[in-house]
Amino acid sequence: MPNKRTNVNMGKSFSREYFYWSMHFAAITVLSLCLILTFLPSIDKSTKESLGLVNFCADLLPNRRWLLVFECTVLMSMMFTYMGLLMYNEDVLTKNLDDITTIIDKDGNLVITNDTKKFIQDFAQNETSGIADLPIMDVCQILYAD
C-alpha cells in the first residue's frame, strides 16, 4: 500500500515569513554593531591615519557618545512603554470586583430578585444547573452575613 503524503504548505506563500526573518536579522545586526562600536577601544590619530578604508568607514559612523545616547534612549523608551501598558491594563482594562462581567459572560442568565427570602428559597439552597447565574454580591452576603 503506497504511503500517501500530502504537502501541507501547498499553495502557501512564504513571503511574510521571509520578510519577518529579514526584519529580525536586520534588527539583530544593528544591535550587534551598536554594541560592538560602543565597547571597542578608541583609536588614536596615528593608527587612524594608517587604516585607510577603515578610517573612511569610521568617519561615517556616529560618535561613540551618540551611540550611548541612542542605546539609552531606546532602553528608556522601552521601559516607559512597558510601564505605560502595564498601568493602562491595570487601571483601564481591569474590571472592578463588583462588576457583573467579572463573574458571568454576556450570555449568562442572571438571577435578579429584590426579596432575599425568595432568593434563598428558590436559588441559594438549590443547584442552578447552569441555567441561571447567581450574583456574586448576593452569594457573599448570604455566606458571610452576621
From TrEMBL:
<dbReference type="InterPro" id="IPR052263">
    <property type="entry name" value="GPI_Anchor_Biosynth"/>
</dbReference>
<feature type="domain" description="PIG-P">
    <location>
        <begin position="15"/>
        <end position="144"/>
    </location>
</feature>
<keyword id="KW-0812">Transmembrane</keyword>
<keyword id="KW-0472">Membrane</keyword>
<dbReference type="Pfam" id="PF08510">
    <property type="entry name" value="PIG-P"/>
</dbReference>
<dbReference type="InterPro" id="IPR013717">
    <property type="entry name" value="PIG-P"/>
</dbReference>
<feature type="transmembrane region" description="Helical">
    <location>
        <begin position="66"/>
        <end position="88"/>
    </location>
</feature>
<keyword id="KW-1133">Transmembrane helix</keyword>
<dbReference type="GO" id="GO:0008194">
    <property type="term" value="F:UDP-glycosyltransferase activity"/>
</dbReference>
<dbReference type="GO" id="GO:0006506">
    <property type="term" value="P:GPI anchor biosynthetic process"/>
</dbReference>
<dbReference type="GO" id="GO:0000506">
    <property type="term" value="C:glycosylphosphatidylinositol-N-acetylglucosaminyltransferase (GPI-GnT) complex"/>
</dbReference>
<protein>
    <recommendedName>
        <fullName>PIG-P domain-containing protein</fullName>
    </recommendedName>
</protein>
<feature type="transmembrane region" description="Helical">
    <location>
        <begin position="21"/>
        <end position="43"/>
    </location>
</feature>
